[in-house]
Write a structure and sequence with these properties.
The chain contains one helix and 38 strands. The N terminus is likely disordered.
Length: about 475
């Protein structure tokens, strides 16, 4: 959730002043030619991956022109990367692979690869780039242009603007319905919400909500939209079937941003003038709790499990982490003037390693063929991976696609899509082995990008014994 913008604000100092004012106010033996079954392990279950795959929180630091990355498992900043001038809104693709940052002072959107923290594209969108949202299928990004009274639509495959839609005066924020069919835009000066059909990119309704609307968020079932009104000290509820206001929740201290819990039972609202985050019970539309935050909380976001709420505190250069069960708060230092926050899936690719050993008996050229199979269990594309295979020495091994050194083969893979696999082959002649001695070969993933969250399936082993060049058993 970005700062209210009724005109272009080219200088960061003006935002600092605004914030200050608001703040004050197992396997069988093979036969002679049988292949030993592949050694492998299955992908980890979701429960086993909970810690390793905890989501990441991304925070726009307006005055620093950066984004801070927070590991929600450790509640610590793991990296900070530069974006455009005056970053405000932030949204992530559904798979967490890309981050979209609206740069208010640059009139652009930075597209960032979350695995590397590098900007891969910069999309000009016009003056006053403010709130931003990504469609549930990840094909489109929607950017509010506060100074131009419009919503800009971006094709995320091509990273190009495909449409602009005129909305009300001084639009602030945008939210896309869970089914992706509608976008709601809050119009600050017009005191309304524009309802946009995303199939036709047209405004199909205007909901008069009064009171300078700022933040907007849908419930998971899409039946309601919650809209904050900072200067009317309330949150209104829109029935999305009728596009009419169905409830008004009084809430003091300048309710600013809004986020809904994954189960739809609670709504969390930052209160810019009260240094708190309020919890609204959606069954009764009443405030059920108030929890301390930092100075001038702005953007809020909820973790996918609903266990924590993150709030960007504009005047204290911190992010508050609120435990939703105990309503206790901890703080994380970030950059200067944090404005918005998005929580997204961690960029991970679970690499599974399998190893087969196939005896090839022969009086003069008996050998063992090893096949290393790498499978990307996702969810992200595997950018690169290295597997090291420990071999008996001396081996006289050969390989068409791995690098061989004494006692080792190094195999590399790049660009493996989720669900895809690739193989590497290594041949070891029996003549160099001591007959009757078991030899164990182990293949191990040693490095990969992005992070592998599941070490349980990172290695596989095979043991082979050559009694003679004609009798080779592998297990």
């Amino acid at each position: 959730m970005s700062l209210p913008t009724t005109s272009v604000r080219p200088w960061k100092q003006s935002v600092r002043r605004f914030l200050a004012i608001a703040g004050s106010c197992g396997l069988a033996v093979a036969s002679l030619t049988a292949m030993a079954p592949a050694a492998h392990s299955v992908p980890a279950s979701p429960a086993a991956r909970t810690t390793a795959e905890a989501p990441l929180a991304y925070v726009t630091n307006y005055s620093d022109d950066t984004v801070s990355v927070i590991d929600t498992a450790t509640a610590a900043v793991t990296s900070t990367f530069p974006v455009g001038d005056g970053p405000k809104g932030v949204a992530a693709s559904p798979d967490g692979a890309r981050l979209y940052v609206s740069n208010g002072d640059a009139g652009s959107v930075s597209v960032t690869d979350t695995a590397t923290g590098t900007v891969t594209a910069t999309i000009p969108v016009g003056n006053g780039a403010n709130g931003i949202a990504v469609s549930p299928d990840g094909t489109r990004a929607y950017v509010v242009n506060s100074a131009l009274q419009r919503l800009t639509v971006i094709d995320t495959a091509a990273n190009t603007v495909t449409a602009t839609i005129t909305v009300g005066s001084a639009p602030q924020e945008v939210a896309v319905s869970p089914d992706g069919s509608r976008a709601y835009v809050t119009n600050y000066n017009a005191r309304s919400v524009s309802v946009i059909d995303t199939a036709t990119n047209t405004v199909t309704a205007t909901v008069n909500v009064g009171g300078f609307p700022q933040g907007v968020a849908f419930t998971p079932d899409g039946s309601r939209a919650y809209v904050t009104r900072p200067y009317s000290n309330s949150v209104v509820v829109i029935n999305t079937a009728t596009n009419a206001v169905s409830a008004n929740v009084p809430l003091s201290d300048g309710p600013y941003d809004v986020a809904v819990s994954p189960d739809g039972a609670r709504v969390y609202v930052s209160r810019g003038q009260g240094a708190t985050v309020a919890t609204i019970d959606t069954a009764t539309n009443t405030v059920s709790a108030t929890t301390a935050a930092g100075n001038t909380p702005r953007g809020v976001a909820v973790t996918p499990d609903g266990g924590q709420v993150y709030a960007a505190n504009g005047n204290s250069a911190t992010v508050s982490v609120i435990d939703t069960a105990t309503h206790t708060t901890s703080g994380i230092p970030v950059g200067t003037t944090p404005v918005d926050i998005a929580i997204a899936e961690r960029p991970t690719a679970d690499v599974g390693v399998e190893l087969t050993a196939t005896p090839r008996p022969g009086l003069l050229n008996g050998r063992i063929d090893y096949t290393v199979t790498l499978t990307n269990h996702g969810p992200r594309t595997l950018a690169s991976a290295t597997v090291t295979v420990d071999l008996p020495t001396p081996t006289g091994a050969t390989s068409p696609d791995c690098t061989l050194t004494t006692g080792k083969a190094t195999c590399t893979t790049t660009g493996l899509a989720p669900g895809a696999g690739t193989t590497h082959r290594i041949t070891v002649p029996v003549a160099v082995l001591s007959l009757g001695t078991p030899y164990t070969v182990t293949a191990t993933r040693t490095t990969s990008t992005p992070t592998d969250p599941n070490p349980a399936n990172d290695s596989a082993s095979r043991t082979c014994t050559a009694t003679t060049a004609l009798l080779i058993n592998c297990t």
